[in-house]
Specification:
The chain is mostly helical. It is 67% helix and 0% strand. The chain is globular.
């Protein structure tokens, strides 16, 4: 998938898990999701272009154009770690949730690809 597709997939997954787990409400995930939301504009890009740049920087060093689910998973974690380090956003519970639910990511990502 392309960087843009990977971004949209990561947003949808994070948005989905945010709705599923009340503990994620105690993190800064809601704020990041509101800036990431690719569904607000017709070009399907984020509400804040800088946040897309932060995302893109997680995948761009590879100089690839097509990314696997594993690479997108790693980029999603890297993106959240960058945001936490750079802006002090709280994602500790998000990491805990993601690490416990990595299998959910792969099955979720494959399922959404076929929809």
């Amino acid at each position: 998938m392309t960087i843009k597709q990977a971004y949209q997939l990561a947003f949808c997954f994070l948005d989905d898990i945010y709705d599923d787990d009340p503990g994620l409400g105690d993190t800064d995930l809601a704020g990041v999701l509101s800036f990431m939301n690719p569904n607000l504009f017709s070009d399907h890009m984020s509400a804040d272009p800088a946040i897309f740049d932060d995302w893109e920087n997680q995948l761009r060093p590879s100089n690839k154009e097509d990314f696997s689910y594993e690479e997108v998973w790693a980029a999603m974690l890297g993106f959240l770690k960058y945001r936490q380090a750079q802006f002090g956003e709280n994602f500790d519970y998000v990491y805990e949730y993601l690490n416990k639910n990595k299998k959910k990511w792969k099955s979720w990502a494959i399922r959404t690809e076929t929809v």
